[in-house]
Amino acid sequence: MSTTLEPTAPPQSTSSAHENASKRRRRKKSFKHGAVIALLSAWTLFALAPIVWIFMMSLKTPEDIISNPPKFFFLPTLANYAEVLSGPEFLSPFLNSLIVTIGALVLTLFIGLPTAYALARFKFKGQESIAFGILSLRFAPELLIILPLYLIYQKSNLNDTYLGLILAYQLVTLPMLVWMLRSFIEDLPRELEEAVAVDGGTRWTAFRHVLLRLIAPGLGASLMLSFIWAWNSYTLPLVLSGRDTQVITTGIQQYISFQSIDWGPMAAATIISLIPGILFALLSLRWVVDGLTAGTVKG
Question: pTM of the full predicted structure?
């Protein structure tokens, strides 16, 4: 009795198996990248949708704004921007915001730079307690601070003054700058300052000519974030400002009256109020990227 042997398929080569595994990994990696891009795109659309809607409102007539269903295709008009820019209702708070925000950043630099340097380079009793105390100013809710601060301002005549708002804004801007710059200075080797001292330079010379240039990324990032937080601050100016020092975040409320809401001018004022923060971010973009990514990769 004869038996026949059926031919068997040759075993798959090792190189072919590696190629298939590599293709599967590439497909899996491409799928993950596609999913991440899709999620980020959806989140971006979700985050930008309110701003796009407000921008559309700023270009509509009152009839188009209140139309039902909403109009996505309409004849744009600049009448709302002309109304906003031609009256003191918006320009005065806008100017006040620039004065207070820039003044707060200047004072923050004047106080924060020496503070960050001292916390990074010197060892003294209560060092970490002082550092945490500065940081806790950002942790504390503004509603918890605003009442005693208002009573102090009333007794010291700082209410409804530029100086009072600039001092109050330090609760927002100072902790960010001190803690970011402290970490930057701590990462710099002390040998840089020692080399300047060997050449006869002072500590101030080393800071001005060496350290200040090296911490520029952190300085740009912290200033950008501080500017945005100070510019968008609402609770502090709502309680501490007055008719003469009203800022943009509270000044936009003037378009809301008891009987009606001027949606078009309010939307135009909102869009214009976004411009300083965007311009400041663009001007410091290079430093911000370096500052926010510094220290993420070690070794």
Answer: 0.78
